[in-house]
Design the sequence.
């Protein structure tokens, strides 16, 4: 039996992971599941999968979790340190599917225990790629990409010589507003930004898809994971989301990864790697699909892409600062304190400020320094954003 832990089990990726392992209960022993406020879901899954431990990120919800698990013998815990301890429990395969920079420390803890880390949490690589990779190597651990584009690249690159790779292309659906007039974007609401044309995902990554910040993070993720130069990675808008990525070789040949827009493919690939096993995803019928379309991303519509180039050129801890500013700006957009276009403006201004502080950006890649850069990015973003108003009880 393989010992499995799922960080972020109650989210979109976590639930798809559970869907796969629940189909084969004799193959997996579930060590730990973690979640947030969704205590009912967390407890139900922990009971159904016979997990040893369930952890909520929120200390204030510990009693609720204990109550939901009472009489089951399943341990309950809460808070950021408990998430790290859950990740450190003995496991062969750990899914990193917490959203945002909050996923970094638990994922890193799993790597330090030598686990295979299935990495959905792209923010870990954006904030601390070098740290994640060096710790994986030092502890004989492995990271497998779960982001669909990066899983696609990983699959297309299997058995290839990286020296013959000229470029990689990652595709983008274009998100909720790809066909909106650019002038209308300033009026876009959080509800409108939270619907995705092709993928069913958590709210935050869906908004990031509308703004292309998701693709910006993925450019950095691809650079870190596959050791590519920034100018070797291209973004192509592909509204059907069926080609996930392509690898272009020096001889002009391209290998494309094609598949349905269902994250259970990439999750299942990482779960079964290095083998392949049958997965419950749709089989594509190309005669019915009839055509695939492509367009270049418009830099005016999607300023996040230029922000990614800037971060890749600057390097150091600029990814951690950028991601933190982006997370804060998204909170402000969701709260209706700023408009849709203001998110990229805030992130740019925070990067301006960070670039004036080389001692911050060029500090060593330790977890403390990365978390310090994250805190600085949040604080600068809050300086830039309209203050939170309201009840004052938050
Ligand atoms: P989600 O919002 O649906 O779920 C997030 C999970 O993290 C939940 O279990 C939630 O309880 C937990 N969580 C939230 N805040 C937390 C915190 N502060 N501390 C600890 N746990 C916290 O997110 P998702 O869409 O499943 O995305 C998860 C990760 O996978 C993200 O990094 C995302 O970029 C990546 N990803 C998602 C998809 C997708 O299809 N959803 C595709 C590619 C990559
Ligand atoms: Mg993706």
Sequence:
């Amino acid at each position: 039996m393989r010992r499995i832990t799922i960080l972020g089990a109650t989210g979109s990726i976590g639930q798809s992971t559970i869907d796969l392992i629940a189909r084969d209960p004799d193959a997996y022993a579930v060590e730990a599941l973690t979640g947030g406020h969704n205590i009912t879901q967390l407890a139900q899954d922990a009971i159904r999968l016979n997990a040893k431990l369930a952890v909520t990120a929120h200390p204030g919800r510990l009693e609720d979790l204990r109550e939901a698990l009472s009489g089951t013998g399943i341990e309950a815990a809460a808070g950021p340190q408990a998430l790290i301890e859950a990740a450190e429990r003995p496991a062969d395969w750990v899914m990193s599917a917490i959203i945002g920079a909050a996923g970094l420390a638990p994922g890193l803890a799993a790597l330090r225990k030598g686990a295979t880390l299935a990495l959905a949490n792209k923010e870990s690589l954006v904030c601390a790629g070098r740290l994640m990779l060096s710790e994986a190597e030092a502890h004989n651990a492995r990271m497998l990409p779960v982001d669909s584009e990066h899983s696609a690249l990983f699959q297309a690159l299997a058995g290839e010589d990286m020296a013959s790779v000229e470029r990689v292309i990652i595709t983008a659906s274009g998100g909720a507003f790809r066909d909106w007039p650019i002038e209308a974007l300033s009026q876009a609401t959080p509800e409108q930004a939270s619907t995705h044309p092709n993928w069913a995902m958590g709210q935050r990554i869906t908004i990031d898809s509308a703004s292309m910040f998701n693709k910006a993070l993925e450019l950095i993720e691809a650079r870190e994971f596959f050791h590519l130069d920034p100018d070797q990675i291209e973004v192509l808008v592909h509204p059907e989301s069926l080609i996930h990525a392509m690898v272009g070789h020096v001889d002009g040949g391209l290998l494309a990864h094609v598949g349905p827009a269902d994250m259970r493919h990439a999750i299942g690939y990482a779960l079964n790697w290095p083998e392949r096993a049958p997965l419950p995803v749709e089989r594509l019928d190309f005669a019915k699909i009839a055509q695939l379309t492509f367009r270049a991303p418009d830099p005016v519509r999607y300023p996040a892409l230029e922000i990614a180039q800037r971060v890749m050129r600057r390097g150091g801890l600029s990814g951690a600062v950028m991601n933190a500013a982006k997370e804060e700006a998204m909170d402000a957009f969701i709260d209706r304190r700023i408009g849709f276009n203001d998110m990229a403006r805030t992130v740019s201004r925070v990067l301006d400020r960070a670039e004036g502080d080389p001692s911050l950006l060029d500090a060593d890649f330790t977890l403390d320094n990365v978390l310090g850069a994250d805190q600085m990015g949040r604080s600068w973003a809050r300086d830039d954003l309209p203050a939170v108003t309201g009840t004052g009880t938050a």
